[in-house]
Amino acid sequence: MQTRYAVISDVHGNLPALQAVIADAERRGANAYLLLGDYIVDFPWPNEVAETLRSLRNATIIRGNKEERLLNARVWRGNEQMAATEWTYRELTPENLTYYSALPSSAEITDDSGEKIRLFHNFKTLIREPRIEIFRSSLFHAQMGMSRFTIEDANLRYREAVLNRSDAMAEIAELPDGVYLWGHNHLQSKLEIDGKLLINPGGCGVPLDFAGAAPYTLIERTAERWKITQLRVKYDVQATVDALKASQFSKAAPVWVKLAEKSLLGGRDYFAPFRNYAHELGLSRGEPDYPVSNETWRLAAATFDWDSL
Ligand SMILES: [Fe+2]
Known about the structure:
Purple Acid Phosphatase, chain A, domain 2; 5-stranded mixed β-sheet
C-alpha cells in the first residue's frame, strides 16, 4: 500500500487543533505522520501535545526553535517576555521535557518509490527564505495586497516571488531533487521548482495566513508524481481561545496569551509586530535589545496599537 503522509507543523501547544488535524488525517487514510517542530509555548497544553505525538504510529518528528528555547528557559527566569517559555518549562513532566529536548533538528526518509523526503523546521537552513518578503508572516498580508484570497492565490504569489529572485533560484538549483518539508513561518504553501517540491503545511496551532481552521497537508506518491492536498480543518477556535484565557498559563504570561488570541482569531501575525515594537521601546530606553525588561514589556502592552493590524 502506498504511504499517505500527513505533514503537520507549528502546533504551539494548541491541542484541539492538533486533535482535529489528526482525526481528519485518519479519516482520509493517512498512514504516516511527518511533524516539523514547534509543539509548545503559545497554548497551555504542552504535556498533552507531547503525549499525542508520542502515541502516533509511523511518525517522523523533528524539533523547532521553541523546543530549542526550552534549554534556555532557566536563564530567563522572571523575565516577562519569556514567561510563556518559562511556564511551559515548569509545566512539562520530566519525561516530556526530555522527549522534546531529544528530538532531532532535521530528518530524511525514503519513500517506497525511492524518493527522498527531507524535513526541516526553518527553511533558512536551505535557502534564505525570510529575505523573500512574502514568506515572512508579518509581511504576508501586505504582500498579498488583497482582502480576500484563496490558498491557490497564495501559492501563485509564492511561486512568482521565488521565480523573481535569482539568488533563491540559484540556491534551489543546488539542492538534490526530492521533497522538502518545512514550517516555521506558519504560512501554508506548495512550490514545485526545478525538480524540487517545497511544501509548508502551515501553522497548525496558530495559522498566520487564514483564520478559523487548522492547516495541514497530505502528500502521496502516485505513479508519476506527488499528489499534494492542502487542507484546513475546522474546529472550535472560540472554545480554544476561551480555554486559553481561563488557564493558569494566561495568568503567568498575559501579554503572550493576548498575542496568541489575536493571532489565532485574526489569522495573522501579532507576535512579530509587537516584539519589534517592544524592542524599539527597549532600545529607546537604553536597554539591551533582547529580551526587554519587564517594565518595557508592560509599557509596550499598554501602548501598542492592538487594532492596527
Ligand atoms: Fe512556530
